[in-house]
Amino acid sequence: MAFLRNDAINRVNLHSGIQALAQGAGAIFFLVFLLRAGVSVPVALLAQAAIVTGRFLLRPAMLPIARRWGLKPMLIVGTLGIALQYPLLARVDGIGIALVVLVVVASVGEVFYFLAYNAYFAVLGDVEHRGHQIGAREALVSVVGIVAPLAGGWALATVGPGWTFAAVGLSRRWPSCRCSARRMSRSPVNRRAPSARRGRR
Predict the structure, then answer these.
(1) What backbone torsions phi and psi does residue 32 show, to the nearest 5 degrees?
(2) 3-state DSSP call for residue 99?
(3) Which of 7, 25, 135, 192 could form a disulfide linkage to 152, CB 3.0–4.6 angstroms apart?
(4) Cα dist. 113→78, 157, 173 in Å?
(5) Of 200, 186, 146, which Cα lies nearest the Cα of 23?
């Protein structure tokens, strides 16, 4: 099991498992909580669509930002953004400014986080063990995905949305990816990829 010898990628996979726990315990109830907060079904669905649309519109701006600032700051901004959306979700009370702020923060945080995370994983991973490392990550995420909704539902019913979403937000700030920053900082960054166009054909 040589693919487990990469300590950096193991830490990133641990980070993925914790993110999956937060996703399953909190994000799965996103739509339900909006409905209980007095947001109508069409507006709640529109809010989720607006988050995805915002991610799509912001994506072209990510490459210049990544080239200027690097992946680590992008990942930090994204992690803080997706963590902040859960306390904001708990503050939503019908259609208002809190809902608008939630949509904006979620869009920005998610586009920063997921693009940087995928690039981060590619840089830190081993080419010869890529499939095994991704498989280990997905296996962990799948197991956590079974338990997380049960834990999230219990927490919402027991301690309420405020404490539950605060805990989810804190867990999404888990800094395990930061432990890999030293190795990543030594990885060369190519400003141009002349073979990329040929690879698309």
Answers:
(1) -60, -40
(2) helix
(3) 25
(4) 4, 30, 11
(5) 146
Residues in the chain: 201
Report pTM: 0.68
**Encoded tokens for 93:** 């009370």
User: Which long-range contacts (C-beta less than 8 Å, at least 24 apart) are formed by 58-67?
Assistant: 58/107, 58/108, 58/111, 59/111, 59/115, 62/111, 62/112, 62/115, 66/115, 66/116, 66/119, 67/191
Contact of 112 with 78, CB cutoff 8 Å: yes
The CA distance from 27 to 79, in Å, is 14
Pull the structure tokens for residue 86. 């859960």
Contact of 9 with 139, CB cutoff 8 Å: no
Domains by residue range for the chain, with CATH: 9-175 (1.20.1250.20)
Quick one: tokens of 168?
Answer: 């989810």
Q: How many helices (H) and strands (E) does the chain have?
A: 10, 0
| Residues with Cβ within 8 Å of residue 30, at least 6 apart in sequence | 48, 89
- The DSSP code for 60 is G
Query: How is residue 192 annotated by DSSP?
Result: -
Q: ∠ CA(76), CA(61), CA(176), 5° rounding?
A: 15
Residue recorded with tokens 């804190």: 170
- The pLDDT tens digits for 139-192 are 877 887 787 777 777 777 787 766 666 666 666 555 444 544 444 444 444 555
Evaluate whether 108 touches 59 at the Cβ level (below 8 Å): no
Residues 6 or more apart in contact with residue 167 via CB below 8 angstroms: 155
